[in-house]
Amino acid sequence: MSIIEVSQLTKYYGKARGIVDVSFGVEKGEIFGFIGPNGAGKSTTIRLLLSLIHPTGGKATIFGKDVTTHGPEIRRDIGYLPSEVYYYEGMRVIDLLKYSASFYPGDHTQRMHALAETMELELNRRINDLSYGNKKKVGIVQGLLHSPSVLFLDEPTAGLDPLMQRKFFNLIREENARGVTVFFSSHILSEVQRLCNRVGIIREGRIVEISDIRTLQQNNYKKVRVSTDSTAPVVFDMPGVTHVQAENGTVHFFFKGDINTVLQRLSALRVTDVSIEEPTLEEIFMHYYE
Questions:
Q1: Is pLDDT at 220 greater than 80 in this prediction?
Q2: Are 8 and 30 in contact (CB under 8 A)?
Q3: CATH assignment of 221-289, given 3.30.160, 1.20.1410, 3.30.70, 3.30.40?
Q4: Given this structure, which CATH class describes domain 4-77+148-217?
Q5: Distant-in-sequence, close-in-space partners of 265: CB < 8 Å, separation ≥ 6
Q6: pTM for this entry
Q7: What is the pLDDT of residues 103-138, one digit of tens each?
Q8: Sheet with 222-228, side-by-side order of all strands
Q9: Which of 137, 168, 189, 190 is most buried by a 10 A CB count?
């Protein structure tokens, strides 16, 4: 059984759509990407899994336990970084983290200091003196200090500068290497492509695709660029060809189907240069949203 199992999970806010019939599984030890634009239902799904809100229909389990009936028990072994972090403004960072650690059994002092050092977080500063990016660092340390088995990250890099983003990604990879399952929700597709094994794409509250990233790229269309020494326009009017652009003897297009048909067409031309590439995750994503 998957460590996270979601079956036809549905949430309406009155008549407003949250998510509808969402189903997927996350395997133990994987980094699962959950992508979609703002408003697609990513945060709603996470809040349902954390039992912060309750579903209108369907069910979800973590560690094989129903998230609604076993919420407090499940949350003991879960880390969560929300997309927006809000804290008691007057507290010092160290006091806030000690307060958070007190909810979990054991002594987490050493781990807390190690994480703070990694994220370059000053523990003696007051929360209301921190920038948005530094508050996000507090959230990262808070989500990880009790060494959870499952980590939920909702738009985690917002507010972090590029250097700190890199440190954060390295930290998540280290956590994953020691067996932590990561649920990574983002609309920044390059992040998902760098970090995740599999990805689920959500659109308007519904899952439109679940696949490992490599298969998603291979089974999707290819990007083709062809340059010829022909003075006449080169036409690729054939099934599977879309988004054709031609300029200065070079033709760009997307192709989905048997690539050999493109190669046969190329063999009849005087080709000076050709490239056939897999699309980026961003291009695949836009394909699902067109």
A1: no
A2: no
A3: 3.30.70
A4: alpha beta
A5: 236, 238
A6: 0.81
A7: 999 999 999 999 999 999 999 999 999 999 999 999
A8: 241-247, 250-255, 222-228, 271-277
A9: 137
